């Protein structure tokens, strides 16, 4: 029984799957980063629109953590 050279499926499919997985992770990271940026801008606009110091302090702390 000779099993050398016996292969099921495409040999390059593992490489293509790895590249597509990396592209997917890259896209997910970009979407998350965009969400953080938008969230920080909204916090900044909320700080600018607020006149109450009790509202500004927590927003400033949240902005610093971002």
From TrEMBL:
Residues in the signal sequence: none
Membrane topology (UniProt): Multi-pass membrane protein
Keyword Ubl conjugation attached: no
One Pfam family linked to the record: Zip
Keywords: Membrane, Transmembrane, Transmembrane helix
The keyword DNA repair is annotated on this UniProt entry: no
Top-level taxon of origin: Eukaryota
InterPro entries according to UniProt: ZIP
Cellular location(s): Membrane
Primary location class: membrane
Protein name in UniProt: Fe(2+) transport protein 1-like protein
Organism listed in the record: Tanacetum coccineum
């Amino acid at each position: 029984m000779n099993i050398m050279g016996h292969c099921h499926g495409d040999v390059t499919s593992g490489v293509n799957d790895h590249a597509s997985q990396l592209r997917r992770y890259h896209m997910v990271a970009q979407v998350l980063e965009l969400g953080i940026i938008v969230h920080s801008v909204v916090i900044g606009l909320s700080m600018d629109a607020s006149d109450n110091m009790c509202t500004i302090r927590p927003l400033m702390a949240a902005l610093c953590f971002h």
